[in-house]
Hints:
Helix 4 (248-263) links the parallel strand 8 (238-243) and strand 9. Helix content is 27%, strand content 16%. It contains 5 helices and 10 strands; from the N terminus they run ββββαβαβαββαββα. An 8-stranded mixed β-sheet has the order 2-3-5-4-6-7-8-9, sandwiched between helices. The chain has a two-stranded antiparallel ribbon with strand order 1-10. It has a single domain (6-292), classed as Alpha/Beta hydrolase fold, catalytic domain (Rossmann fold). The longest helix has 26 residues, at 158-183. The chain is α/β, with parallel strands linked by helices. The radius of gyration is 17 Å and the shape is globular. The model is unreliable at 1-19 and 21-59 (pLDDT under 50). Helix 1 runs parallel beside helix 5.
Amino acid sequence: MGSVRIAVLLLCSTAAGGCGEPSAGTATGSGGGDNWTAGVGSGGYGAGGATPSLTGHRWPTHMPQPWQPVDTAWCSDGWFGLDEHTCAYLPASNQAPNAVVVFLHGMMPPDASAAGQQQVVAQAAETLGVAALFPRGRPGLCAWDKSVLDQYCWPTSRDVVDAHAPSFAAEWDASLGLMQQALNVAITRRYVLGFSNGGYFASYIGLEGWWPADGFGVVAAGRSYVDATLLSQASPPGYIAVGALDGKPVQNSAQNLAYFLSQQGWPNQFVLHPMRGHEVWPDDIEVAGALWGL
């Protein structure tokens, strides 16, 4: 399978609060959003390429089926539905994984396909030999602009994180438990990585321990401000990546997060991709996996 990437066209304005941490003002700029268009060209999905095709399975045929997967358009080929808004992936390279990566997508219009981002995650999951969960955000959380209120988003400001993070964590635990039961696997290590809008939320998850994880990743996102009094004592290793062609506010927030972690003595790896914009590639998850010890 060749390399796949997700790229986006930023349509958010700093005057409207940006797409990432709206309460932080222009320091985050258009950092967290990813309204995108897909066309025909030589790039990956969202970068001028057509919708990708992923050959795989919705359900491993050799596995017992005490529970039937949910048929939902949210889950593309190779993924199976745990419920209407959560997809799971079991790598063909390892039918008994003991680790899972939860991937938090970027802002998504209600009629958008998750196939492109799911292909990125699936390719990395095959390389690392890990299972993956792909939950969906909620409408109404991108509240800085009425035009994006209906998009699926993640919490990115203090009050919204406090209000919604516990219920998201409970949903992920339930999904993980169902996946383990359905596939008869035992997950002992868990990680979270987010892209763009999802990356900002992943930073809260990793730094504050809302969903205890053994490592976290933030791609095309970061933080303009971190409250050190809320840091988790676990200090899971953090992967932070941003493209050199991404917007300066996004680069600044990513660099600020990496600097903060280093100042705190928190294990981290910062990657500046020289020829990338606002996008995520399988190697982001793979390099993060190496940092996490996968």
